[in-house]
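Sample entry (238 residues):
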Amino acid sequence: MKIACSMIALNEEQYIGNAIESIAEYTDVLTLVDGGSTDKTVDLARGICKKSGIEFILKTKFWNNDFACSRNESLSLVPSDVDWWFRIDADETFGTKIANSINNVLLNIKPEIRAVSIKQVNLVDVDQKTKTLFYSAGRGGWETHPRFFRNLRLPDMSSAWRWTGQVHEYCQLLTKPGLVYPENVASLNVSSIHWGWLSQERRSEREDLYEQIPGSHIAKGSLTKRSHTVKTLWKGLL
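Predicted structure, serialized as tokens:
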């Protein structure tokens, strides 16, 4: 079985190394659309892929405040001989529980299953003395949209999947009637770990970014002043 990761990034040198290393065990191809990074994002991604034996496919497409546009570019780079592809953001990691599950699950999943959903844990605080990580108990959990997708193809061999939405984007299937949300979605009880909200500076940057995108529903203070009920992160997720 051949698995590809579809990723977009812009100035993510702080996070992208950990993201790629966390998926290296079962990822054969990484397609990265870079939004014009001015830091070491691309060099780090290329180096880790080379070290891990992952085929690295890069395209530069300058960021234009459209997440779906960038994700569709990355998706278009996924080779046709891949069996499944998945999305991970540059400031996330997939834990060992996913690594231990995903190959067996995807190999044995029913052929009518088109996509697989997982959970997400949003880290929101850390005890600097003990280095204990805490996550938001009131947000996260089962994600609204799938993460893993069967690599379905149209007659011209292009991907049958399309990302939709300038922000809060989601993936749909292109059929003769048009774009439809996939049926036959399975659930895998594993979690991705989102590290980006640990940094208040990053939250502020994201607020500024989302404020520029119509329909984001993110205003000043939406991320930087968000309150959370926290719980201790179970180390088995990492």
